[in-house]
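dumping this here so i dont lose it
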């Protein structure tokens, strides 16, 4: 779990270790969960490789503009979401894999 992805990357730069994790993590069955309050600061590779993106209330500004370019049909709704209200974009079945699909040894 990575809290505040925007602290680890920019829209233009992604540290090598995160790039490798995104590129090869699926092959090695590694789950990655990331959060941010600054979607305009997250590298596109996170969005393009995600099986599921959960979008919450987003105030007007750079973050909402970024989401509008990637998810135009949802962006108009995000500013009116109540706190805690969200929309799942992608395959919600991916949530069932969290904690199960990783590399943990059988007990």
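and the seq i came up w/
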């Amino acid at each position: 779990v990575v809290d505040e992805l925007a602290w680890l990357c920019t829209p233009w730069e992604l540290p090598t270790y995160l790039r490798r994790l995104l590129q090869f993590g699926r092959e090695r069955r590694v789950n990655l969960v990331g959060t941010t309050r600054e979607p305009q600061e997250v590298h596109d590779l996170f969005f393009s490789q995600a099986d599921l993106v959960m979008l919450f209330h987003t105030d007007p500004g750079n973050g909402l503009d970024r989401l509008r370019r990637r998810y135009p049909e949802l962006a108009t709704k995000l500013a009116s979401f109540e706190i805690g209200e969200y929309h799942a974009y992608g395959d919600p079945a991916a949530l069932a894999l969290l904690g199960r699909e990783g590399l943990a040894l059988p007990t």
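The chain has a mean pLDDT of 84.
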